[in-house]
Specification:
alpha/beta; Rossmann fold; globular; binds NADP nicotinamide-adenine-dinucleotide phosphate
Length: 254
C-alpha cells in the first residue's frame, strides 16, 4: 500500500539533531526513507543524532547558534557537500526560566539567537538558491505553546517562540512562488531533557501538579512530535502552510 508519509529520496537538514525531539526526528525520518543531515552544538550532540539512525549515513556539523553570522557560510558548505535539500527542521532551542526583574537584554538575546534568529538565517540562505532547496520543499520549526500562553519566568522563551510563529506566517508569502511550505509545531511539555530539568526544579510543586491536571492527555513523547514533523514534511500535507499545529495534551481546551 502507498504510504502518504513516505520520505524516500528526500534530503532533510535538522538542527538540534542530538536533542530529545531532534534525535527522535532523525530516527523517524530515516525510518520513512529520508536522508538526514544533522547540526548541533557539539561533536557529542552530533554523535547522538548519528546514533539515532544506526546503519545510515547522517553527515554531522557543529555550530553554536549564538554565532548567527557564522551560519551563512556553514549552510552554503553543507549544501555544497550534501546537495539540495527537500526539507529543513529547526529543533535547536533553549528554554531558560528567569524572573522578569532579573531578565536583562542579554538574557533575552541568547534565546532569540538560538530559537529564532538562527532559524530565519538558515531559511534565508537555504531558500536563496534553487540548488540549495527544492521547489515544493517543506520547512518545520519547533515552536511551543509558550508562544500563546503567558507564564512567569518565560518572557524570553515565549517571545522567541511567538516570533517564530509570526515569522512563518510572513515567510509563506516569500516562499509561495516556489511552493515551499513552512509551518511550526506547538507542543506543551514533551518528555525530553528539557522537561526533566523542569521536573528536577519543580518536583512535587503546584506548578507540576497544574501541568499534570491541565495536560490531561499526558506529556508527549518525542516520537509523537517527530511523527507530526514527518507528516508536515511529507506529501500528505501538500496544502498545509503558514500554520502552527498545537500538540498540547488538552491544555488549551480542557
Ligand atoms: N521538551 C519540551 O517540553 C518542549 C516543549 C515545547 C517546545 N519544545 C521545543 O522543541 C525544541 C527541542 O526541544 P528538546 O526538548 O528536544 O530540547 P533538547 O533535548 O534540549 O534539544 C535542544 C537541542 O538544541 C541544542 N542547542 C542548545 N543550544 C544551542 C546552540 N547555542 N547552538 C546550537 N544548538 C543548540 C541542544 O544541544 P545541547 O543539549 O548539547 O546543549 C540540543 O541538541 C526546542 O526548540 C524547544 O523549545 C520543547
Amino acid at each position: 500500500m502507498n504510504n502518504p508519509m513516505d520520505l524516500t529520496g528526500k534530503r532533510i537538514l535538522i538542527t538540534g539533531a542530538g536533542g530529545g525531539i531532534g534525535s527522535a526526528t532523525v530516527r523517524v525520518l530515516n525510518g520513512l526513507g529520508a536522508e538526514t543531515v544533522a547540526i548541533d552544538i557539539s561533536e557529542e550532540a552530533v554523535g547522538l543524532a548519528q546514533a539515532a539512525a544506526p546503519g545510515r549515513s547522517v553527515p554531522g556539523y557543529v555550530a553554536d547558534f549564538k554565532q548567527v553570522e557564522e551560519l551563512e557560510p556553514l549552510v552554503k558548505r553543507i549544501c555544497d557537500e550534501n546537495g539540495r535539500f527537500d526539507g529543513f527542521v529547526h529543533c535547536a532551542g533553549v528554554a531558560p526560566m528567569r524572573p522578569f526583574k532579573m531578565t536583562k537584554y542579554e538574557n533575552v538575546l541568547g534565546p532569540m539567537q538560538i530559537n529564532f534568529f538562527s532559524f530565519v538565517e538558515i531559511v534565508r540562505v537555504l531558500t536563496a538558491k534553487k540548488d540549495r532547496f527544492a521547489d515544493g520543499g517543506s520547512i518545520v520549526a519547533m515552536s511551543s505553546i509558550a508562544s500563546v500562553h503567558g507564564k512567569p519566568t518565560k518572557t524570553a522563551y515565549s517571545a522567541s517562540k511567538a516570533a517564530l510563529d509570526a515569522a512563518v506566517r510572513c515567510m509563506v508569502c516569500d516562499l509561495k512562488k516556489r511552493l515551499i511550505r513552512i509551518n511550526t509545531v506547538m507542543p506543551s511539555w514533551v518528555n525530553t531533557a528539557m522537561y526533566q530539568k523542569f521536573l528536577d526544579k519543580y518536583s512535587d510543586s503546584p506548578e507540576l501538579r497544574e501541568i499534570e491536571e491541565r495536560q490531561y492527555m499526558g506529556v508527549s513523547e518525542p516520537e509523537e512530535i517527530a511523527n507530526t514533523i514527518a507528516f508536515l514534511l511529507s506529501d500528505a500535507t501538500k496544502t498545509i502552510t503558514g500554520t502552527s499545529i498545537l500538540m498540547d495534551g488538552g491544555i488549551s481546551q480542557g
